[in-house]
Design brief:
The chain is of the alpha+beta class. It is built from one helix and two strands; from the N terminus they run αββ. The mean pLDDT is about 80.
Length: about 60
């Protein structure tokens, strides 16, 4: 079977790319697992802006 002369380079690129993507997936899984075990920090969203009175209504949302 004939293989191109740059097969080793392509294999190296594939190995590096797959390794990096595996590390990214593992890191993301670790982050989500940590947050699921120890809780997400609450986040505050502005839900409405007042007109002339300049009131801003904030909504606190705890991402569980």
């Amino acid at each position: 079977m004939y293989l191109p002369s740059d097969t080793q380079t392509l294999q190296l690129m594939a190995y590096v790319t797959l390794t990096l993507s595996s590390v990214i997936v593992a890191g993301t899984s670790l982050f989500i697992a940590y947050r699921q075990n120890f809780g997400w920090k609450p986040i505050i969203f502005p839900s409405s802006y007042g007109g002339g009175g300049r009131k801003i209504r904030l909504h606190s949302f705890n991402r569980l």
